[in-house]
Amino acid sequence: MRRAIVTFAVSALLWGCGQETGKVSVTDYEAQRQAAVARLAKSKPAPQGTAAPAEAAPGKPAENAFGSADKGFTYVAAGKRDPFRSFILEQQASRNLKRDRGPLEQFELAQLALHAVVWDTPRPRALVTDPSGRGYIVAEGTPIGKNEGRVTKITDNLVVVRETYVDYLGERTEKDIEMRVRQSQGG
C-alpha cells in the first residue's frame, strides 16, 4: 500500500512539473507595458510647443507611465499652515516667552473658587482660592486663568473674567466667564 502511494505521489510530481504554469514572463510584461504607454500617448496629445516624451531607458519607468505623477502639478505651501506642527505647543511657547506667569495663571478658571467680594468701594476686590486652598486678592485688571484671562468687572457676588482663546487657524476669540460666590458660602 505504501509503495502505491509513493509511486502515485512521484508520478503526480513529475507530471505537474512538466506542464507550464502560464505565468507572464518579464519580456511579455515589458511588451504589454510599452503597448499601454503607446496607447496612452496616442490618446493624450502633447501640448503645443513641447516635444513628445522620449522613451524611458530599460529599468526606469516612463515619464507618462501609469504610476507617474502629472508633471504640470506643483504644490505651493505658502500661506498654509504646516499640518505636522502643533499649534498648542506654539501658543504655550509664545505665552511663556512673553512674561512670567503669576500663581493664578497656573490654573483653569474652573479650578479656582470665588469666596468673598468687597464691591461697594472705589476699587472693588475679591478673594479667590486655588485648589490647594491658598487665597489671592484680585482687582479689575488682574491676570487670572491659563487662557490669558483678566478680571474685567467685580459686582456684589460676581467676578467677570475675559479669556482669550486662539483656534487652530490662529484667530483670537474673547469670552466672558462669570465666577460667582456659592450660595453655601453665603453668596
Structural write-up:
The chain has 187 residues and is of the alpha+beta class. The chain has two domains: 24-77, no CATH class; 102-185, SH3 type barrels. The chain has three helices and seven strands, in the order αααβββββββ. The protein has helices at residues 2-18, 26-43, 87-98, and strands spanning 113-118, 125-129, 135-139, 143-144, 149-154, 158-166, 172-180. The strands form two sheets. The chain has a four-stranded antiparallel sheet with strand order 4-5-6-7, with no helix packed on it. A three-stranded antiparallel sheet has the order 1-2-3, with no helix packed on it. A hairpin with a 6-residue loop joins β1 (113-118) and β2 (125-129). The longest helix is centred in the N-terminal third of the chain and has 18 residues, at 26-43. It is elongated. The mean pLDDT is 79.
Task: Give the helices and strands, then pairings.
Layout: H1 2-18, H2 26-43, H3 87-98, E1 113-118, E2 125-129, E3 135-139, E4 143-144, E5 149-154, E6 158-166, E7 172-180
Antiparallel strand pairs: 1-2, 2-3, 4-5, 5-6, 6-7
What's the short version?
The protein has 187 residues and is α+β, with helices and mostly antiparallel strands. The protein has helices spanning 2-18, 26-43, 87-98, and strands spanning 113-118, 125-129, 135-139, 143-144, 149-154, 158-166, 172-180. The chain has two domains: 24-77, no CATH class; 102-185, SH3 type barrels.
Low-confidence runs? none
Number of individual domains: 2
Largest sheet: 4 strands, antiparallel
Termini distance? 100 Å
